[in-house]
Design a protein that fits this description.
The chain is α+β, with helices and mostly antiparallel strands and 78 residues long. It has a single domain, classed as NAD(P)-binding Rossmann-like Domain (Rossmann fold). It has three helices and two strands; from the N terminus they run αβαβα.
């Protein structure tokens, strides 16, 4: 079980990086930057709560993105 938690942590942390890469024009994206630049709104990321989502949230905030966390159980968000 501890190995699974480590794998989920890596998946969450790398998911934001993969998403940011997909937003680049060279990858067929819109050419957006997650942290934004002066005069341009930051990229928005929506993440579902869970082990992967928690680590994705940490990296998304670190990148400077506007992060929203969602879940169907409001008690998990508290």
């Amino acid at each position: 079980m501890p190995l699974l938690v480590l794998m989920l942590e890596v998946a969450g942390r790398s998911s934001i990086q993969a998403g940011a890469t997909s937003l680049e024009m060279i990858a067929g994206g819109k050419g957006m930057l997650l942290p934004g630049v002066s005069g341009v709104r930051r990229g928005r990321v929506t993440i579902r709560v869970g082990t992967v989502g928690l680590h994705a949230c940490v990296v998304g905030v670190g990148f400077g993105a506007d992060v929203t966390i969602v879940d169907i159980n409001p008690l998990r968000l508290a």
